[in-house]
Amino acid sequence: MATVRRTALWLLCSFLGHMSAVILRTTDSAVWANEFDSIELTCLIESISTNNPRIEWKKIKNGVPSYVYFQNKISGDLEHRARLREPANLLILNVSRSDTAQYRCEVAAIDDQKPFDEILISLAVRVRPVVPRCTVPISVTVGSSAELRCLENEGFPLSQYQWFHNNEEMPEDHKSSPKFLNSSYTMNTDTGTLKFRVVKKRDAGQYHCQAKNEAGYAQCNPQMMEVYDLDVMGIFLKVLGGVAAVVAMTAGMCHVCKKGYLSCEKQSGHSYKAPRQDDRMDYINADEGHFRHKSSFVI
To answer: How many domains does the chain have?
Structure first.
């Protein structure tokens, strides 16, 4: 009989000891929230015996922890944007991209046999893309190559890019659509580049790009790309440059001549001045072959 009592008492103590353990759980250990929305991080107390347990929340950013809820009040950068909800959930209002971090819920109960437990929750805040920067060439020639670019750096997760031609979505693989079957473009949805290997007349038109992620999308204004048979603009600019160079050279020569740095009059082969002769001596006569004195000296 005594043995039975001892066994029953041991089982009761074991049962009560198991029941007096702090046990936590969460509905989701990895959560997403869109920027400016609200999100509730769940810290559910499944088992506890202590009436007033100590509850704390910590934010871990880049491996460095800081208090979010400590000594029954919200602190840190969430001081005016969060509150504790029963039993130990943390509600964050108007979340921002800086709230992306890990959050740890800690519950301590001194009267429990297992007096402490914690859970870790990862929060990622999705940020809607801003209007992307789009680069579309104004004009290209038939048969040449062309590249269109689209990029934005604010969205999180990273944006995926989609191009539109005359407001019609361009498939990533042009061969999958009868309308774009004869085109020669390749599209990179990760980098936002649209490359034409050989531009054709039908590629002319308006182009715009859309950046999109789980939080939303944004797009740039349509831009026109003209396709010409000849590079009229290039030829015009080259001719204009040549004319400008000739005009500049001519103006420079005129300026030099006016300043006297260069003789600009035409010279004939016999227009040079003859050297001045001395009155006392004749120069060599080609016919006589000797000097002839104009006057004699008397010693």
So the answer is: 2
User: What letter represents residue 144's amino acid?
Assistant: S
- What's the CATH code of the domain at 153? 2.60.40.10
Q: Is residue 250 part of a domain?
A: no
Per-position b or e across 218-243, b if 16+ CB within 10 A of its CB: bbbebeebebbeeeeeeeeeeeeeee
pLDDT value of residue 92: 97
Looking at the fold, whether 94 and 143 belong to one and the same domain comes out as no
What does the alpha-carbon distance between residue 148 and residue 219 come to, in Å, rounded to a whole number? 14
Give the Cβ contact number of residue 122 at 10 Å: 15
Alpha-carbon distances, residue 144 vs 229, 231, 273 (angstroms)? 10, 10, 65
Task: Give the burial string for 250-262 (b: 16+ CB within 10 Å, else e).
Answer: eeeeeeeeeeeee
In a domain, 43, yes or no: yes
Task: Report yes or no: 93 and 81 within 8 Å, Cβ to Cβ.
Answer: yes
Are 35 and 74 within one domain? yes
List the domain range (segments joined by +) for residue 156: 133-228
Query: What does DSSP say about strands 89-92 and 223-228: parallel, antiparallel, or unpaired?
Result: unpaired
Helix (H) or strand (E) holding 140: strand 139-141
Chain-centre distance of CA 14, in angstroms?
61
**First-last CA distance in the chain:** 178
DSSP class of 141: E
Rounded distance between C-alpha atoms, residue 212 and residue 130, angstroms: 9
- For residue 46, the SS3 value is strand
- Provide the pLDDT confidence category of residue 258 given band limits of 50, 70 and 90: confident
The answer on pLDDT for 156 being more than 90 is yes
Neighbours of 92 (CB within 10 A): 22
